[in-house]
Amino acid sequence: xxxxSPSTLSASVGDTVTITCRASESINKWLAxxxxxxGKAPKLLIYAASSLQSxxxxxxxxxxxxxxxxxxxSSLQPDDFATYYCQPYxxxxxxxxxGTKLDLK
Amino acid sequence: QVQLVESGGGVVQPGGSLxxxxxxxxxxxxxxxxxxxxxxxxxxxxxxxxxxxxxxxAYYADSVNGRFTISRDVSKNTLxxxxxxxxxxxxxxxxxxxxxxxxxxxxxxxxxxVSS
Lengths: 105, 116
What we know:
The complex is a heterodimer. Chain A is mainly β.
C-alpha cells in the first residue's frame, strides 16, 4: 500500500518541487517513479528509488529507502507539467500511488 | 528498439468476455516479466497482472483475480489478457508493459468499454 502526496501541486517554471510516497511496510529500495501526460502511456523516470532511467534529464532525482521516498524535480521546465506516480515492485500487488498532478501556477 | 502494440479492445456488455493482445518486438520476449496496467477514464493507474519470465507464474490484483488470466505465446511474441465476467468498473485503457527494474517500456494502450 502506497500513500502518495500531494495529490495536486502548483508550481512555476524554474521552481523545485518534491513529491512523496510512503509505503505501509518496508520495500527496501524497490520503488519506481513515472511521468504521464494526457492521452499517453506512462514513462519510467526513476527505478530502484534513486537510479535515473536512460534518457531522463538529470533535473529528476529520487531518494529514500524502506518506507519513505521522494521524487524531486529541480528547475521545472514547461515539459514537466504532468502527472507523476510511484510504484513499488518488491512484492505483489505492484499497486501504484494515487498520483500527483503537477500544474502551472 | 522495444515496441509493444496492444489490440483487442472494444465495447462489451456486462458479463461478457474479451481477449486483449500485446505484440512485442525488439527484445527477447521470453526473458522478461510482462505486466498489464489499466487506467479508467480520468483516474489513476491500476496495476492488473504480471506474468513472470518463466511464463508460468502469474499474479493478479484482487479486483480481477479469478476473472482475468494473463498468458503469452512465445512463438508469436505476444502477451494476452483474457477477461471474463466483465463489469462497468473494468472500463479502462489497458496498457501492456515490460519489466526491467520498474516498467521500462509501455504500449500505447487499448480501450475497453463495458456497457450495455
